[in-house]
């Protein structure tokens, strides 16, 4: 009983010393708040199974890293095949054409065009320096690279891919805009869009442009090319294919079965579609026809066909 009375008497003594502890606990809690605001993310980032380890203060964790550091430019370049086996379409998930350009595409057909005003392109110049590359085509958000028939994509594609990746990651302008003093047009397609509305167009021409813009151009752009309207004369629609479609063997089929059929179906004034060739293309087509004729004479009328396509050896009458 005496020991119980002593313990009861000692209780007030112990309770009187406790009011001093809240100040200590408050001090600890405030210190813990500062500690958490500076180092807690580093502790939370630790995967240690026992006691968490603290990283140095000069090594911020991923939770405290600024958005500019974590949000570095990520490059994912997608490659698509086209109906033209000599052309590949690259989609770098990055705008290609400069803002404010009236034309929906630019096409570089020779190394000189990549340096000439008004739209020189360092990337196009580098691509054209690759052995076997014959042309570079820029769409709004894609690049089509065309090679020679005797070049191998296994040798050419890695270098093309590397140059496009480097150009996009650098953040530099892919196409520059310079003033052309002599009026020289180094690139094809730099002028105003041929399918844009013109108040001077007739009703038929306006309908043709609308069909080309809404129904035909998206499909051709999917194939890595584009289309130009060159005029409407005596019922014939004059068109020019660009990009991968320019040198594609199936371009004639595209014009006749696809474009011509749709235009004639909706517009009764249209009698047909004609593909316009530039002077260089006309010379190349003429030389190719002479070469095919020479092969036909050498092999004779009974020779097995060795080439395919319209106007090739297998279609030349014996």
Short description:
This protein is an alpha+beta fold. The protein has 8 helices and 8 strands; from the N terminus they run αααβββαββααββαβα. It has helices spanning 2-17, 21-44, 67-70, 122-128, 153-170, 203-222, 251-266, 279-299; strands at residues 78-81, 87-91, 106-108, 133-138, 143-147, 225-233, 236-243, 272-275.
Describe this structure in words.
The structure is a single chain. This protein is of the alpha+beta class. Helix content is 40%, strand content 14%. The protein has eight helices and eight strands, in the order αααβββαββααββαβα. The protein has helices at 2-17, 21-44, 67-70, 122-128, 153-170, 203-222, 251-266, 279-299; strands spanning 78-81, 87-91, 106-108, 133-138, 143-147, 225-233, 236-243, 272-275. The strands form two sheets. A five-stranded antiparallel β-sheet has the order 1-2-5-4-3, covered by helices on one side. Strand 1 (78-81) and strand 2 form a beta hairpin. Helix 6 (203-222) runs antiparallel to helix 7. The longest helix has 24 residues, at 21-44. The radius of gyration is 35 Å and the shape is globular. Mean pLDDT is 77; it is low at 1-7, 13-17, 20-50, 54-71 and 307-318.
Please give a handful of descriptors for the protein shown.
318 residues, alpha+beta, five-stranded antiparallel sheet, three-stranded mixed sheet, 8 helices, 14% strand, globular, disordered N terminus, disordered C terminus
Number of strands: 8
Helix content: 25-40%
Strand content: 5-15%
Give the SSE string.
HHHEEEHEEHHEEHEH
CA distance, first residue to last residue: 133 Å
Structural class: alpha+beta
Strand line-up in the sheet with most strands: 1-2-5-4-3
Average pLDDT, to the nearest integer?
Answer: 77
Mass-distribution shape: globular
| Helix run count | 8
